[in-house]
């Protein structure tokens, strides 16, 4: 029941709420430095989120903060600035993404900015060579680690002060508990990014065990997005895709399971016999997905 779930949440986070000594020494000067290399102005919602979360991070109790917003609203930039500022202030940060592709994307986007700031950054995924992985696990100089589930391993020599989950709804409860569960000896502050939070996360917010910053406005450089609901009718799907192709656009057709890809691709190929249709999924080797 809902009541039982709330009691479970309270029990799970009781030790976190009683823990002190987790405050990060983030100063405004470092937040300003962290903006270097970002070519756009922040929206008011992004600024409010950064202000709210940085205040949370300075508190002695562990931060548990959700950044909620649609795809493209700028959640990643909020996390990036807080991560950079934390590192510049002498702390270690890790960012966990649910897939290798997304982890690589974050790493590529933040690498130049990190180097400009003098921050050593590393990528840790299933594609990372064993020798490089071993080096990362024992490195004390890498202060910003980006990757998949491996960044949450307790085998790291570094004690991370801040953990960031991108698309946190795609991580299971046990995985998210790694490194942020006080009962395991960890006291990392936690920032979660999501466009579709799970019921447990919503329950945490409702009972006051997590804070939330909502981003509803989009950066001026981003095109407007429109969400519509369609039936599973071929003609309706064909009409929508055709309108995008006619403007020389690109279409991503996303299915929930790998086994759904082949029949969906066959279906689309029948609807658009002259178009090139490719596919990508996490079970392929990285070289195959390029």
């Amino acid at each position: 029941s809902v009541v039982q779930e709330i009691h479970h949440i309270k029990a799970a986070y009781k030790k976190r709420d009683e823990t002190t000594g987790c405050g990060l020494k983030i100063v405004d000067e470092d937040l300003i430095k962290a903006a270097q290399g970002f070519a756009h102005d922040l929206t008011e919602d992004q600024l409010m989120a950064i202000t709210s979360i940085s205040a949370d991070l300075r508190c002695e109790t562990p931060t548990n903060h959700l950044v909620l917003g649609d795809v493209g609203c700028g959640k990643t930039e909020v996390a990036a600035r807080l991560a950079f500022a934390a590192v510049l202030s002498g702390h270690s940060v890790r960012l966990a993404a649910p897939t290798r592709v997304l982890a690589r994307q974050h790493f590529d986007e933040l690498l130049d900015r990190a180097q400009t700031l003098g921050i050593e950054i590393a990528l840790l995924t299933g594609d990372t060579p064993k020798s490089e992985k071993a080096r990362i696990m024992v490195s004390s100089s890498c202060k910003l680690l980006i990757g998949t589930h491996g960044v949450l391993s307790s085998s790291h020599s570094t004690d991370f002060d801040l953990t960031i989950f991108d698309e946190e709804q795609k991580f299971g409860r046990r995985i998210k508990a790694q490194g942020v569960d006080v009962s395991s000896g960890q006291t990392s502050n936690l920032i979660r990014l999501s466009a579709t939070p799970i019921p447990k996360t919503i329950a945490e917010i409702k009972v006051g065990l997590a804070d939330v910053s909502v981003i509803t406005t989009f950066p001026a450089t981003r095109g407007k997005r429109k969400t519509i609901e369609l039936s599973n009718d071929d003609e309706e799907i064909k009409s929508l895709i055709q309108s995008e192709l006619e403007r020389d656009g690109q279409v991503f057709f996303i299915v929930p399971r790998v086994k759904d890809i082949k029949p969906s691709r066959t279906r689309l190929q029948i609807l658009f016999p002259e178009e090139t249709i490719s596919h990508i999924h996490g079970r392929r080797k990285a070289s195959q997905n390029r």
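The chain is about 40% helix and 10% strand. The first strand starts at residue 64 and ends at 69.
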